[in-house]
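seq:
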Amino acid sequence: MNQKHFTDEFADAVTNDATLSEIAKAQVIRNLAKLKETKVNILITGLTGCGKSSTINALFNNEKAKVGQGVDPETMDITKYEYDNIVLFDSPGLGDGKDADRRHSENIISKLYEKDNHGDMLIDLVLVIIDGGSRDFGTTVELINSVIIPNLGEDNKRLLVAINQADMAMKGRNWNCNKNSPEPELVKFLNEKVASTRKRIKEATSVDVEPIYYSAGYKDGDQAQNPYNLSKLLLCIVQHTKTEKRAVFIQDINKKEEMWKDDDKLKDYREETRASMWESVKSAASKGADIRR
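struct:
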């Protein structure tokens, strides 16, 4: 059985709301219909082995995605995953040779300049994933500085940098497997990586970014590790998305509770994400309707 779309549930509640006029109800239903068709397009890139696939699986449960290759010759190497409202463009990993990297970089640039049916930029967000277990940060920073930022236009908010595989930093030392979280020494190391990445991008491009670190987790046969800071990553993705589009994440995020429970506890990321998404729903639904409570 297909999962009911959240806009249909909202529409049912509006239809049965005796406090709303019929005119207001009709306007809200029309707005929800538009929201149901709204897409958020995310381009994901990084070096080979940075954990793009595991991140996609953790965030969106990739088993439910429809997969299709780009039809344009320029984008044939970019894999497209389609959910109800989220469209992911997974760029092949860089670092496998100069010729391949040049082709992949050209494909990324081409995708960044692509426009949707309304003439707006297609890509809402570029998620650059860095392998926290690797010493080679330079190649990814060069990708950000030389390929992505120069072709983003003025909207640098469309860029999110995230350091994955935090559990493998420092060669896996100082990771508490029982608590599924980093020990203080590893937290210090990861914060230094975040600061170093921010500084290198700022010095090269004058653009401010706020990288975060996380672990997408894994499942290998009988062995599995839940993600860490995935809730923080999702909040950052939502906050980097246009306000009017944030609601669509409600439909497509992974519904498995265990994927979201472990994080650094610096904020209530899950509550902030819910609040942001539902505020987007209410804002979109009430636009143009005279709703008074």
